[in-house]
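Q: What structure does this chain adopt?
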Amino acid sequence: MMGKDKRQNVMQKIWRSGFTVVMLVLVCVGMKQSVAAEDVLLKVNQVTAYAGDRVILQDYVNEEYQKEAVYEWEGEAPNPAVAELTKDGIIRTKSVGEVKVKVSFQGEEEAKKEEILSISIIGPEDLSMEYGSRIDLEAVSLYQGEKIQYTSSVNSVEISEQGILTACGFQDTKITATREDETSFVVANVKILEPKLAKDKIVRAAGTKGYSVAVEYFSVNDTSESIQWKIADPQIAAWDGVGCSALKKGSTTADIVLTAKNGDQKTLKIQIVVTDPALSRTSIIMAQGTSQKISVTGTDASSEIIWDNHVDSHAYFSADGVIYGSDAGTTSLKITVDGRELLCKVQVTNPGYKNLTIILYKGQSGNLKLTGTVKGSVVSFTSSNKKVLTISKTGKMKAKKTGHATVKVKADGKSFSILAEISSKKGYQAMKKAIAISKTKTKYSQARRMSKGYYDCSSMVSRVYRKYGVYFGSRRGWSPTAATIGQWCTRHKKVVAKKAVSYKKLLPGDLIFFSSQKNGRYKNITHVEMYTGGATDVSASSRYNKVVHYGYSRSSEIVLIARPTK
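A:
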C-alpha cells in the first residue's frame, strides 16, 4: 500500500495537470471567439451603379457567408421606379437615387451578423467633345476589372479597348455598357460641339491671297477628313487650297463643306466681301506737334484697318488713325486694310520765324519768309490790324502807318503769331544805324564823345538822329545831354510814356530815359538808350565800355519814353 504522503503528492500532480489542460482548453475557446468577433459580413459597405444596371448582392458578401446570407430592404422599401430587389438577391436599378439593403447571416447564435449595404444609383455622365478630341469614360474606372462592352448609339465616337472616346463625327450619341448576361445601360450622353466659323464674314482687299478662315471644333488630321469650299461667284473670290484669295471688288457667298472621319458632313456658310481700299492722301506735310486724321476709302463697314504705330519715328499713328508729328523729318507710315498694305509719306516740318518781330517803316513793303518749311508746305497769313499792316496769303507785306499789328501764321497745321512794329522811316533808319554802330569797334567816353569811334549814351542818340534830320535843339557841335534830349522831347510833345512799358508798345527809334540818381537835371535823367525793335535796345554803355545791342529791360529806373519822329 502507498503511504499517505506519497498519495498526496500524486494527487497534487494530477490536479496540476488537469488545471493546465483546462486552461489550455479555455484559452483555445477564447481565441476562437475572438477570431469570430473580428469577421465581417460585407466586403464593402458602399456600391455605385448606373441606372439600368443590376447589382448582384452576393458579390459583396464575404465568401464564408454567401450561401446563408439574407437580403431585404433597410427600412421602408424604395419606390419601385428607383430599384427592385429580387428573391435571389439581385437589385435592378432603374433611376437615380440611393437605396439601402440589410444583409444578415443566420448562423449559430454567437455568429449571427447583420450589416447595411448602401447603393448609389447614378445617371449617365454628360460629356461635351470637340471633333477629334479624346476623353476617358468614367464608367471604365467604375467597372474596372469587369467584362463590359461599350458601344455608341451612332458612329460619332470611336471607343478604344481602354474605354477612351474619340470624336469622329458630328452627331450626338449615347454610350451603352453591356454585360455578359446582356444587361445594358447607358453610361454617358455625348454632345459633339457643333463646328462653326470663327467669323461669319470675310472682308479682304482685292489682290490679297491665301486668307485662312478658322473653323472651330474641327480639324483635318486624316485623309478621310476634308474642308471644301464652294464659292458662289468665282470671279470675286477663289479658294486656293490654303486660303481665300480676293480677286475683284464685290460680294459673294461660300459654302464650306466639312467631312468627318465617319462620313458625316456639315455645311457652313460665309459671306465674302472684296474691297478696294485706298488712302485719301498718300503724302502729307505737317508741322511737328500737330496731328492730322487720314481717311481710307473703298472699305466695308467690317473692314479691318491696322495703323502702323512707329512712335520712335518722325510721325506715328494712333490706334484710330490720327497722325502725330513728333519731330522734323520724313517717314513712311504703313496702313494695312483688309490685308492690303498702303503707304503714306509724311514730311514733318518745323515752321517758324527767325526774328521775334517784323520791323518795317511806314510805306515799306516786304516778304515774310518762314523757316523750317518744305516745298509743298501750306502757309497762310492774316493781319490783326490792316490799317497798320496788310499781308497777302503768300506773305507779301505793306506797312500802311506807324503802329503795331499781329501777323497770324498758319503753317502745315501749326499756328503762331508774330508782332509787327511799324515805325517812321527816320525812326527805322536811326534804329538800323544804331545797330550798325554796335557792330563796329567803339569805346565809351564822355570826354571824346564826339570823336569817331567814341560815344556816350546821349551823343550816340544825337549823332545818329542828326544823320536823318532830327535834332534835339542842336544841329551841330557838342551833342546835348540825355536830360536835355528828354526835355526837348517833352517840350515838343514826343513823349509816349512816363514809365516803363511792355516792348509791345514801343517802336524802333523810340528813346528810353533812365534816372539812377538825383542830379538836378530834367527828371534827374542820367541815361538814354534807343529801342531797336524785337525787345532790344542799343546803348553806349560805360559798364561795357562800348556801344552794345542787348535786350530791353522794363526797369523801374525808366522815367520817360519818347518817339522823336512822332
